């Protein structure tokens, strides 16, 4: 991050906001996929797992095709597979929400910053918070 004291504040602000969006996107890429169709599959798996759990983990898994197929593929019981799918989705949602909260806070602060030094400090703080983020 290099700032010139002679750069107009709006340009500095705009560049910092763009870097924040890019860094948030990179952080999100740890938790989401850009593989075509994969998001649809994850959504279908979550819906299927949630329905299977809501039904009380029935022994007959024929109508829960995503749970059944993946459980067979990885050698887990349908119950363990459904629980794994839901837990993974919840961890992902928590991480993505934290990233978005950090991003939104930084963007609001930078939009209100009135000096180059303040913009630089806020961006540096954002990058540190993003790097230090832990999801349990």
Structure description:
It contains 5 helices and no strands. The protein has 136 residues and is mostly helical. Helix 1 runs antiparallel to helix 4 and helix 3 crosses helix 4. The model has no long low-confidence stretch (mean pLDDT 91).
Terminal-residue CA separation: 30 Å
> Fraction of residues in helices?
over 70%
Question: What portion of residues belong to β-strands?
Answer: under 5%
The main β sheet shows up as:
none
Name the shape in a single word: elongated
Low-confidence stretches: none
Which structural category do the helix and sheet elements fall into? mainly alpha
Radius of gyration: 21 Å
Number of domains: 1
Element pattern in H and E:
HHHHH
Report mean pLDDT, rounded to a whole number: 91
Distinct helical segment count: 5
The beta-strand count equals: 0
In short:
The chain is mainly α.
List the keywords.
136 residues, mainly alpha, 5 helices
Write the layout of secondary structure elements.
Elements: H1 9-28, H2 38-54, H3 65-74, H4 78-112, H5 116-132
Helix pairs in contact: 1-4, 1-5, 2-4, 3-4, 4-5
